[in-house]
Amino acid sequence: MKKTFLIYALLGFGLGSCNKDYLGREPESSIKPEDSFKTVKDLGLFTKSFYDVALPSAEGIYNESVDNIVKSTLDDEITGKRIVPVSGGGWTWDNLRNINFFLENCFKTVPENLAAPYAAEARFFRAYFYFDKLKRFGDVPWYEKVLSQYDEEQLSRSRDPRTLVVNNIMADLDYAIKNLGTEVNDEQVNKWTALALKSRVALFEGTFRKYHKEFNLPDAEVLLKQAAAASSEIMESKKYSIYNAAGTDSYGALFRSVDNIDKEVMLTRKFSDGLQIWHNVNYYTITASYGKPGLEKNLVNSYLMKDGSRFTDKPNYDKMTFKDEVVDRDPRLSQTIRTPGYKRIGGAAPVAPNFGNSVTGYQLIKFVGDVKYDNFNRSVNPMPIFRYAEVLLNYAEAQAELGVIKQSDLDMSIKLLRDRVGMPNLDLAQAISRPDLYLAQDYDPNNVMDAFKGVILEIRRERRVELVMESFRWDDIRRWKVGQMVTRQFKGMYFPGTGKYDLDNDGKDDVWIYEGDKPVAKNIQLLKLGSEILLENGNSGNVIINKHITKKFDEGRDYLYPLPVQELQLNPNLKQNPFWVN
Fold this sequence. Notes:
The chain contains 25 helices and 9 strands. It is mostly helical. It has a 3-stranded mixed β-sheet, with no helix packed on it. The protein has a two-stranded antiparallel sheet with strand order 1-3. Strands 2-4 form a two-stranded antiparallel sheet. Helix 4 runs parallel beside helix 8 and helix 10 packs antiparallel against helix 11. The protein is globular. The two termini are 25 Å apart.
């Protein structure tokens, strides 16, 4: 026992050691619980501390990669180069210690009826914390009290089953739903935010259990019903709506607005010039400093035509040049990337896509604001953490996965998203009778084979288009068990050969793909074939991204992350996730 305690004392991070240094101590800002939690105001001040550490940063939202947005470099999740870390690797528990410390002490001096809303806030964040751990590791130890550094039994526990963790997350969220306020507030969690998180958790876990049959997990349908019910309760409340004050441009306006749009955005991370709190999204999209992010060709192909028909049903769709392929498409495409006629806010003239800032040529504009915010780390538009659009998508997907979806379900979910951009609604009968073969080639190997296959594929399309650049994609790929999608060759715009191209259809050439000596030319992007730009067929075809980097996804291993080596050494009761070798 003395030897084990010495190891705990020396290491200072992870779960094994973190139990002593973090889970088992009072927060540094505290003196004693009885002095810190005397009044309701004290409780409110403490719960505010959860927001900054628990919720994703702006970069954690817009800096999406995987296969929606590709860059000049690839994440280890895509190359298969993840390794078992020595320490860290997401196995950190200090935020949980703060939450449990609060929950143990918030009722000691403040009456229960007054303290309950703050306890509900804390339990929301405990659910949020454990959902992240669940997605990453699967089974994890569930702790709901602050541990003593001498509590060897608890410090050396094995992981609790995934089913128990999910049940406890749901219990925390049910308490939060019952005890949080109902007033709309996009800076503080409320009943509706807790319902949105319950919907998110239940949909993730319900579909994970449905498609990952190798884990033999029960109650997939129970969870999907919970996802639908939580979403439905928000929808029936009429507290939120889809923002459409800017006409068919409302989708783009929602993300670049510096004002809060709390009718759709349920919880947000806010930024301010006055408070000198900024993020970096403008600079991220208009420079080469962050891997030149661009939309991937498969996603571009997935956007429907404006009349609701499929782009990939058009003859020779795969050989269209840029200015032709973007005509009459779902308006969300032109509000996500630069298309002909695009003009920067605060800019005088239209600007074409720039390969110097986007490896695929499909240059991002979602979240991009006024040119005055273009300097490094100077953007101030809010970043959505929960928004009503996700709730609608969760509802439609849960109903479809349960096999009970009706046209009326689509009318009160998908239709609202389509209405915003002036597109026709999704037709259930047509989707079921004519599944999209282009989408099916990605999903068919993974058991989307039932009678509702066609509508499930369409809802997945809608989710991908609506939520792009909001960092949902990696979780979606894992829960649907479609990891092989990230191993495809990533592509960009199509070019029939070398030569000059007018990308924005203004009569002036924007790109010159050349061979041999570099031409002398002004006001045009010069790209040397074979070095600065690679085409699929050598001297023609789609732009090829990361051609020489092998992508790999291990179906038996890569849906979960490995536990760090030090934690396994400290606690012999912890077992590594399947097929990860230390």
